[in-house]
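hiii, so i know i said id send this last week but things got crazy w the move. better late than never?? heres the sequnce for the chain we talked about at the cafe, plus the structure i predicted for it. fair warning i was half asleep when i ran it
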Amino acid sequence: MVTKQKVYLSLGSNLGNRLANLQKAIFRLQEKAGKILDISSVYETPALGFEGDQFLNIVVSVLTPLAPLELLGTILQIERDLGRIRSVDGGYTSRTLDIDIIYYGNEIINNDDLVIPHPNMQHRKFVLKPLSDIAPQFYHPVLHKDTRNLLQECRDKSHLTKTKHKLFKDRSGLFSQLQLIAIEGNIGAGKTTLSKMIASDFNAKLVLERFADNPFLPKFYEDQARYAFPLEMSFLADRYQQFMDDTSQFDLFKNFMVSDYDIFKSLVFAKVTLQKEEYNLYRKVFSFMYKEVKKPEIYLYLYQNTERLLANIKKRGRDYEQNIDPVYLEKINRGYLDFIKSNPNQNSIILDMGELDFVNNPADYEFILEKLEDNILSSNI
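okay and structure toks below
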């Protein structure tokens, strides 16, 4: 049985999106180093020992199965993965990420590769202040003083500012800051499958479009000109009613909501299928309804080429979809892209699915989750 040790790590960043760098580092520590137990408040601090932008600093505790040198190697790799380039002369410079081992349990280590406890921690207010948030009574095994005493005696007069930023142990915590993610795409793009996976993995309320019982849909694929308007009006009424019902009341036992459609798709499809006069009338009705519905914080569009769409449609085997015109699918794709382009204030992500197989390839699914993660962190939702 592997013995696990509680360790304390100091993290700092003063290059790029500092908060995003720290959050990504926490996620990677959780993945590669062990279970994140505690995260301190986030402090803004001046660069120490060199001229540079202000740092964001935190301290985290981790329950790790790694031996000290293994942990050091993992930390150095995480720094490199997140863009850290160490100076050749070993001097202090600005950095995307800096991670130091402060304590490894109560162990005392002193060799050429690693010194624990960190030899300078008692002189650094940007380490001691966040450390006091999560381990105020932890005793330094060499100096025999707890964190509060070390902080009181520290001669570092740097001004630290406690920020309002919040960091999370895992993606579930980060995603829970959202109310609604809408995952959109053409017919057969995989939006429902992806929505179900995210809802399952991150405890989200799943909002799925209900359309299988629409009596106009099979008729529409047989005679588009005749059934386009009643089909689109039927969809609009159903989507509006369902969306209002499903999104107006939040589930207290779920972290957020994820939907496999956004009600604006009604206008996208209507513009492709309806005649000009029909569309103008439809748009007026739509505009009244759209004002009342919940808007997603993230609108993720899964772009897929027509060939792959047709293959996916054939695979799922719905009889009424098997004769869909490829030109129709291309028009729908253009309609979605035009909608996104004409709504620059909407927080949209266009994800080219290409050859991605997020169902069977965990790396492809992880790629999509990282895109969502990046968007949340960069937009400060």
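btw The chain has a mean pLDDT of 91. thought thatd interest u
miss u guys!!
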